[in-house]
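Annotators were shown the component list below and the corresponding predicted structure, then asked to write short factual statements about the assembly.
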Amino acid sequence: MSSEAFSATGNQMVADAFRQADPDVMAAYPITPQTTIVENYAKFVANGQVHTEFVTVESEHSAMSACIGASAAGGRVATATSSQGLALMWEELHIAAGMRCPIVMANANRAISAPINIHGDHSDIMGTRDTGWIILFAETAQEAYDNSIIAFKVAEDPRVLLPVMTTLDGFVTTHAMDRCVLEDDQTVAKFIGQYHPLYPLLDTDHPVAQGMFANLGNSFMKAKLQVRRTIEGSLDVIKEAGQSWSDICGRPFDIVDSWGTEDADYLIVALGSMAGNARHTARMLRAEGKKVGVVRPRVFRPFPAKEIAQACSHAKRIAVFDRSDSLGAQFAPLGAEVATSLYNEGLSIPVSNYVVGLGGADVTIDEIKSVYSDLADGTGSGTISYLGIQE
Amino acid sequence: MATFDVDSFEDWKPSDFPQGFVCPEAGNSVKYKTGGWRSRRPIWDPEACKNCMLCWVYCPDASIQVKDGAMTGIDLDHCKGCGVCVSECRFGALKMITESEAKEA
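Structure shown to annotators:
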């Protein structure tokens, strides 16, 4: 049962998803533009709307450490962060995944210093892409809500037991008002279900040691391989959870959201909020008879390589928009993933990579049009450029 | 909870490990014999020992064996030969000798 449509920010919607999941523990530290997620959640705690033990910590390093401890103890755990805060958590992120702690964390995607910039881009989240966390990207406030609910279901699935990041773009999605609906509390509680931890430290009848040493022989490699196979396999669990949530709420859940790909010659691949602008521009160009399309992965880890290759298979040329850069690399993170996915599926389609919207810079309709026109002209293949910046 | 034959873990495939590399068998560090790390060992003189238990307090490897409040010996399977017990003993009841001296004796 959905609520009436109402206006809400992405951060309000994430806080409500967390309220409905009612975690046992939340340990969090405030940082722009994540702050209102935790601020809203602290109100739910103060008002007795949730049974969560809220831990105020002195840094994000401590926040993630406390979350890992609570998760190892056997609790359902959630937190939220952004930018420098996510960077400060970096060493714990590996530990959370390696110890198979199904923590759910919202990230308000934001630029990383220097220079200082508090606005939205994907530089923070891309710095965590190799940690073993499942990473979901929302385009809208509504999707931030849906992804956050699916995140608990996937993280706590016995076939997965991995931490999940549910991300939304700083300010554009975290703070802008959007048309949203909420499913009712019982529906969400029933969908997510009870969490049954595998080796909870508080189960004193079955004592275990967690955070083990693997310093001899090849047991360290075996441990890492187990996590790799698990996160690869989690794609099917995400599909399954997304589909059953979609059946309940009536909103679509596609691992890769494809628009116009059946017959498009030129495609833009983009993550998160900017895909809306790309689709809007593509619609305008379609009205002029141009065969263009947009591909948006909703899941970045595990990377849906086959689904991306399938969505791109009919295109003549592809532009990948990256809202972060991998300085010194051939391509930025999404560009490299897309190019590798095409290569591995035997598709030789020219790819150009555009770094766009860093530090909250707008990705405008005119700029997107210029990219489609570059694709049609065949300029820019195999190169990386900063969109809209003259060198 | 699944059971694991921890003694054969070196033969396990990646999928055989408990998730999160958890050690599912509590208290099994006793199976790991750290005595082989030792180059010197403590020798105990029961005649001089007053059972003050200072060595027991200080030993970082729980290798001072005690029964009914009295010292009974040293667990050489786990003693790493750090010599802290000898340094703390007030009564000359403990001394260190090298492993080669121990072999000759």
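Statements collected:
1. Chain A has a mean pLDDT of 97.
2. The two ends of chain A are 53 Å apart (CA to CA).
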